[in-house]
Specification:
Elements (H helix, E strand, L loop, with lengths): L10 H26 L5 H13 L4 H17 L4 H21 L4 H11 L7 H13 L4 H14 L3 H14 L4 H17 L7 H18 L4 H15 L6 E5 L5 E5 L14 E3 L4 E13 L7 E3 L11 E2 L8 E9 L11 E6 L7 E2 L10 E9 L3 H6 L13 E3 L6 H11 L4 H27 L3 H21 L9 H14 L4 H19 L2 E6 L2 E6 L9 E4 L5 H4 L2 E4 L19 E3 L19 E3 L22 E3 L41 H11 L6 E3 L10 H8 L5 E2 L2 E2 L2
Parallel strand pairs: 2-3, 2-10, 15-16, 16-17, 17-18, 18-19, 19-20
Antiparallel strand pairs: 1-4, 4-7, 4-9, 5-8, 6-7, 8-10, 11-14, 12-13, 14-15, 20-21
Length: 723
């Protein structure tokens, strides 16, 4: 196990193993006979005890003994002494089994079941646990059982915290003790128990405690993992917060019902073309929440009554909780004056109803205010829209913004995108102090010893520090340690090639965030190592381009955010990209597009030349109702015999499939069902007019007719117009 080479068994070992197998078969046969015939005599119980002593993993034997205990207890209800004797005997059987294998799931669960009866002494359990934890201090079964016993005995979290201190001081490598410490401290901090408040004081003390382990043995990972947990406690908010929205607070939105924005001051951030008679209102929280509804969020506008709004979670797993929520406001059909800006106010009036996954309530009210101007329908322009041209993603089809677009306007808009709170500014001061101190200490350690996990921790600390900058300096978007973080991840990819994909994803997240904030210009990353980076805010314009198609004014008005050729393997936080309607992520190394479901305005998407291996990797697309153009050409869809993401997508036999799916009507008779089912589940319901899928292993001559049926709105497929 765990990399140990197998050795050929000796003849005497083979003979002993055969004898043991024969004995177990005989005991198993007798047990099953007694089980089926409900025989619970003393002799029958002895047989099961012998079997469990030899093989504690026999779940059938443990279940048989539960039935026997229930049967015997029912017959001895009037005799407390007999009840105690039955349960004591059961505890002895479990203890004997644990001596043979103290990591047996069945044995520990059976012992917990016995104690839950309430007739046994708990004091002996702590003594037993001490013996087992001395034999193996990292036995997580024993630690789980200890938490159960502590709750049963009423031992306080403070006392248990002292116990973890004792074990950690005896052995800094006791990962399970560190883990239990994090569990206990989480409860103490959440409940603000005396001595565990304020949070800043507790975290400072814990950082000082873990420093002893890090400097004593820097190569041991146990302390580093606890340090990572402390870092997470330092940077995360204690309650859910609204951090971004579209439309942004203070913005002036222009909505066109026919794609004509002529005569309007066009902006990629504040102009929206709607052919559905609605426009989305998007709320982006700092963590997954549930409870967003018309009773917790009040929207005041002339377009809709608040009670009529339906809020939907943007979750790919059909969950009722999500980090991003959306509702849709109607664009009135009547005549509205295009020069009039209609105010809309959004207020989280009952934030206590919005709850995170850990039970924390959104305790800070938030309010948004923006205006909407509606461009009236132009019938002459609408007639011309029937001849839209195919979207091409070539460089010649894009042109950069004109020089008159001021850098300051971009900064102002990015400030609008972030919803900042006064209490966050006050809290971030002590956060920044802790991070600065930890950065200095880890740098000191790395100056004395070359440590991979130390480099990883430093990269995380620097990233967390840079994430604090917008709160500490509201008008600063500069990532101070960006180049150093890239260098650290580049070094780790070379030092630890076995985990290169993990480091590559972390590097990708860093690059993505930097491009979003500053549009940095990456000069070279060779073999995963960052060579030279230059960045400033005006470089953002190098990634925002006008898409140019001669005969379609709606498309020529589209602003494309081009994040292609960046070696991205993962998409980071998109809270500042909610305005994007056209996105180019081609020629990267993406294996997943998780996160794109938040971009509810997205109409044009280029994912060509990536490493997407299945249709299930495209699951977020099902939530993009405005998506019209999709390019997934030259990926790896269908090239891998084993799709590790397939479980994310409903199967034809799943009970979640609706009766209206009629899958068999779309698939050729002799086709491989799995190839078509996943495509059907993803594309069904989308209103794509253009799709490029060439260059994937899954496509063949039967696949195109299948797509025509699933996507009846399709006008172009793989560069060819359909007739």
């Amino acid at each position: 196990m765990h990399g140990r080479p197998r050795k050929a068994p000796k003849p005497e070992d083979t003979a002993a193993s055969a004898a043991k197998t024969e004995k177990l078969r005989a005991l198993q046969s007798q047990l099953l006979h007694n089980h089926h015939n409900r025989i619970y005599t003393k002799e029958a119980l002895e047989i099961s005890a012998k079997l469990l002593e030899a093989n504690p993993e026999s779940y059938t034997a443990w279940n048989y003994r539960k039935l026997a205990v229930e049967h015997n207890l029912k017959q001895s209800e009037s005799d407390p002494g007999s009840v105690k004797s039955i349960l004591s005997e059961e505890l002895k059987v479990v203890e004997n089994s644990l001596k043979h294998n103290f990591k047996s799931y069945g044995a520990w669960h059976h012992r917990q079941w016995i104690l839950s009866k309430g007739h046994s002494s708990v004091d002996h359990e702590l003594q037993l646990l001490d013996r087992f934890q001395k034999a193996d201090s990292r036995n997580f079964h024993a630690w789980n059982y200890r938490r159960f016993v502590a709750a049963l005995k009423g031992i306080s979290d403070e006392e248990e915290l002292k116990y973890t201190t004792k074990l950690i001081e005896a052995n800094f490598s006791n990962y399970s003790a560190w883990h239990n410490r994090s569990v206990l401290l989480s409860r103490l901090l959440q409940n603000k128990v005396k001595g565990s408040f304020p949070k800043e004081k507790v975290l400072v003390e814990e950082f000082e405690f873990v420093h002893q382990a890090l400097f004593t043995d820097p190569d041991d990972q146990s302390g580093w993992f606890y340090h990572l947990w402390l870092l997470d406690q330092t940077v995360k908010s204690e309650t859910p917060l609204l951090v971004s929205s579209w439309p942004a607070h203070g913005s002036d939105i222009i909505v066109s019902a026919d794609g004509c924005l002529d005569g309007c001051a066009f902006s990629p951030f504040t102009s929206f073309i709607s052919d559905a008679g609605t426009f989305p209102l998007i709320l982006y929280f700092n963590e997954v929440v549930e409870g967003v509804s018309s009773s917790t969020v009040t929207v005041k506008s002339m377009f809709n009554a608040n009670k009529d709004l339906i809020w939907e979670p943007l979750a790919t797993n059909n969950s009722c909780a999500a980090q991003v929520w959306v509702t849709h406001l109607n664009v009135p059909d009547g005549k509205l004056h295009p020069s009039t800006a209609y105010p809309i106010d959004v207020h989280l009036g009952n934030p206590q109803g919005i709850v995170s996954s850990n039970g924390s309530h959104c305790s800070h009210p938030s309010q948004l205010a923006f205006t909407v101007s509606v461009q009236p329908l132009n019938s002459e322009h609408a007639e011309k829209q029937g001849g839209k041209e195919m979207i091409l993603w070539r460089d010649v089809n894009f042109r950069f913004y004109d020089a008159h677009i001021q850098e300051s306007s971009l900064i102002v808009y990015f400030d609008l995108l972030s919803i900042k709170k006064d209490h966050e500014l006050a809290a971030s001061k002590w956060h920044a102090r802790i991070l600065a101190n930890e950065i200095a200490l880890v740098r000191q350690l790395l100056s004395e010893i070359d440590c991979k996990i130390g480099k990883l921790t430093l990269a995380r600390l620097l990233t967390a520090h840079d994430a604090m900058m917008p709160y500490m300096a509201p008008h600063s978007h500069k990532k101070v340690h960006f180049a150093e973080v890239l260098q650290l991840y580049g070094d780790l990819i070379e030092l630890d090639p076995m985990h290169h994909r993990y480091y590559k994803e972390a590097l990708s997240m860093t690059l993505f965030q930097q491009r979003v904030w500053e549009g940095c210009s990456l000069c070279a990353i060779g073999a995963g190592a960052a060579k030279k980076v230059t960045s400033n805010v005006e470089n953002l314009l190098k990634h925002c381009c006008h898409h140019r198609v001669s005969s379609s004014s709606s498309v020529s008005n589209s602003t494309c955010l081009r994040l292609n050729n960046l070696s991205l393997s993962r998409i980071g936080c998109v809270k500042h990209l909610l305005w994007v309607q056209m996105l180019d992520l081609s020629r990267n190394e993406l294996r997943s597009i998780d996160g794109l479901e938040a971009l509810q305005l997205l109409s044009f998407l280029n994912l060509s030349h990536n490493k997407l291996s299945s249709f299930t990797a495209l699951q977020p697309l099902r939530l993009l109702k405005l998506l019209k153009v999709l390019d997934i050409s030259y990926n790896e869809i269908g090239a891998h015999p084993i799709d590790t993401r397939r479980y994310l997508c409903s199967s034809p036999l799943s009970h979640t499939v609706g009766s209206d799916w009629n899958f068999n009507e779309f698939v050729p008779e002799d086709a491989k069902v799995t190839n078509y089912w996943e495509a059907f589940a993803i594309f069904r319901g989308l209103n794509l007019t253009q799709l490029d899928i060439v260059g994937n292993a899954v496509t063949d001559e039967k696949f195109k007719p299948f797509l025509f049926k699933v996507l009846p709105t399709l006008k172009w497929l793989d560069g060819e117009e359909l007739h």
